[in-house]
Amino acid sequence: MTKLSRIAMFSLAAFTAVSAAEAAPKAETPVEQPLVKAVRDKLAGLTYYGVFDILQYEVKDNGTVELSGYAFRDSLKKEAEDAVAKIPGVKQVVNRIEDLPWGVQDDEIRAKVYLTIYRDTSLSRYGTSTDQALTNGVGYGPGRFSPFGVPGIGNPLFPGFNPAGDYGIHILVTNGEVILMGDVDNVGDKNLAAIKARSVFPVKKVFNELTVKGRKPEVPEPEARPTKRGVVTTAE
Question: For a surface tag, which of 115, 179, 212, 215 has the fewest beta carbons within 10 Å of its beta carbon?
Fold first, then answer.
């Protein structure tokens, strides 16, 4: 990973995340172009697009679509490119999606941060209906729930676990550091998600890139960002 950027022109943080321009006051909001909507819907419909991935895209006037973001599941990068290339009106796809590293510690962090955020009664609504049901105790049953598995959604501590669906908070992990990206309802939820992630051991650092619906994304101060090869870069 060269550097974890903020949202590109458009992002699928929660399948409905918007660009900086779209997050402006309503009077300044541009009309969504048909091709932009088609790309967004196609990427949002990918079967295995999950909570540990983030897909971003930019649609240019000449029909070129530039894909970016980070994929935890190896095949997602190619699946996204193939899906977008089939959209009528798309002339070319430039695929800059980067693969996230796999590792025992990073996988452990993914699982723990996921459970910490999506089993919180306030934050579970940013997950799927299954997450909300499990948070409310539906489906556990006597003796069925343990730290090694969550009934109804698979084993979060199993390598490669990446629940797919309409997730509002995406969890990117590399070299023990966590980046939260997505679209939440208010500042309180944004801060709570970061607090939850920071409470997880052995997380080294948390970068809170969540945006609040209806507000312009904040421009972060330059800071060191994690990379998948252990080299630290500085945000522009």
Answer: 215
Nearest to 86 by CA among 43, 57, 52, 48: 43
Is pLDDT above 90 for 140? no
CA triplet 26, 30, 16: central angle to 5 degrees?
A: 80
First-last CA distance in the chain: 15
From the list 191, 232, 189, the residue with the least C-alpha distance to 208 is 191
pLDDT exceeding 70 applies to what percent of the chain?
A: 68
CB 77 within 8 A of CB 43: no
- State the helix-helix crossing angle for 104-118 and 187-198, rounded to 10 degrees: 140
Residue 58, classed as helix, strand or coil, is strand
Q: Of 9, 17, 6, 1, which is closest to residue 66 (Cα–Cα)?
A: 9
At a CB cut-off of 8 Å and minimum separation 6, what does 24 contact? 216
Report DSSP state, residue 120: S
pLDDT of residue 149: 47
Residue (of 196, 157, 201) closest to 176 by Cα position: 201
Least confident interval from 35-39, 152-156, 190-194, 200-204: 152-156
| CA dihedral sign of residues 14, 16, 19, 24 | negative
Structure tokens of 136?
Answer: 């409310």
136 φ/ψ angles, rounded to the nearest 5 degrees: -85, 5
∠ Cα 71 75 132 (to 5°): 60
Structure tokens, 214: 């209806």
Q: How far apart are CA 65 and CA 96, in angstroms?
A: 11
CA-atom Rg of the chain in angstroms: 18
